[in-house]
Design brief:
The chain has 95 residues and is an alpha+beta fold. It has helices at residues 19-31, 51-55, 74-86; strands spanning 4-10, 35-41, 44-47, 64-71. It has one domain (4-86): HPr-like (Histidine-containing Protein, Chain: A, 2-Layer Sandwich), CATH 3.30.1340.10. The protein starts with a strand and ends in a 9-residue tail after the last helix.
Length: 95
């Protein structure tokens, strides 16, 4: 059975997790085909490849989500996603 890496992350951007930020998560997952992501909030897990699923988490600013990553690219994906969350999704604010 493959090992699953787990890490809590906080939604720091002002607008929370919305369509654009969810799409950024999905894009990161697609960059690592050897990894599988599930995102959890309060015991409810969704597939990290689904924008709609991620939106159902209703994650406002300050929400703590838990990332569950497995597969051969798990560490790389977890590092990329941790950076994305820590940066507030970089492009979340209009220029």
């Amino acid at each position: 059975m493959p090992k699953t890496l787990t890490k809590p992350v906080t939604v720091v951007n002002e607008k929370g997790l919305h369509a654009r930020t969810a799409a950024q998560i999905v894009a990161e997952v697609q960059r690592f085909p050897g990894a599988v992501l599930f995102v959890e909030r309060d015991g409810y897990k969704v597939d990290g490849r689904s924008v709609l699923g991620l939106l159902t988490l209703s994650a406002a600013q300050g929400t703590i989500l838990t990332l569950h990553v497995s597969g051969k690219d798990a560490e790389a994906l977890l590092t990329a996603l941790t950076g994305l969350f820590a940066s507030g999704f970089l492009s979340d604010t209009p220029e």
